[in-house]
Amino acid sequence: MRGFVLDRIPAITRANGALDQVGTLAARLGAGAPVLLVADPGLAPFGIIARAEASLREAGLAVLTFTDIKSDPLAAQVDAAAALARQGGAGVAVALGGGSAMDAGKAAAAIAPGRAPAEHFSLGANPLPPKPLPKICVPTTSGTGSETTRTSIVTNAAGAKVWLWGDEIKSDAVLLDPTLTVGLPAHLTAATGIDALVHAVEACTNANANDGNDLFCHEAIRLVVRHLPTAVANPGDLTARAALQWAAALAGIAIDNAGTAIAHTIGHALASLRPVHHGRAVAVGMLATLPWNVAEDADGRFAAVATLLGASGAAELPAAYERLLRGVGIKVSLAGEGFDFITPEQLASQMGNAENAAMRRSNRRASSDADLLDFARIVLAQG
Ligand SMILES: [Zn+2]
If you measure from the C-alpha of residue 381 to the centroid of ligand 1, how many angstroms do you get, rounded to a whole number? Predict the structure, then answer.
């Protein structure tokens, strides 16, 4: 028997319109103190930020709204949000948006009680300050799983994607409101949905995989396979949207317990070199490495994933995965997006950097530097 430890899961509420409960929840978690609201500025035209602010004010709370968040948020933006929290005496934080806004909001809430900037804590260099602000995550995409993880990914001053990690980062409560995701365009629905799938597949096949965590991984995979094509074809299908949102939260729990693997090594390396959506980057990373990974499936973990994708046996998994990827319209080729000027050696070197070491090590099959160069060649040539 292989033992396991499963980490705490935030309190989760799912309901159509759950966003309107954020005021009551923040009043309880923050004991009436002002609220730091970190939100994706792209939500403003849909009235979603205003709705959150209204709910918080109705609960009698002062609101400090911070929306200077870019995709792959900068450490400096996290610092600015934390400074706003300190100045306004925030006692609780709400992170509203996709992975970028949630990662920034969680990190700001974790570092606000101290004085050091976000980069001080990157890659676990220093322990996070004690007594982080309580955090509520409200995801508006269905992919990252940031709502249920202890991780925030930020871009440092050198342009590298680095992680902050610790229980101080994890949210205390999650509001899942499927109606917030119906406005997501098809290509982002596909990319974020595949990110959730890759999280779940990596968490149940990597070196940390265990029977306890398979519960979350396998259900997330089942839900994405069944509902992602529907949500891409029919964005207003609330049943599919709710299923994908739940899949993303489950896959977040899965990686919180077991981490990711080589597809995320590649995804982060790509995004450190040129702008590319995280979901698409890990999607192409998994496509490039799955044949190599399934070649060593001693304990049948890839075979179990294959069954969930409707294939029989690990050897058939890469083709089934590729069909799903192309079926939901993920653009596999990186040609014409600035990567033509990146050599395989540059990409392989980026994969080997310190910030990607933990993900690389988590992969069950060990990768040599020559393997990384092979993967880089495949990723840059895939079409
Ligand atoms: Zn991911």
Answer: 22
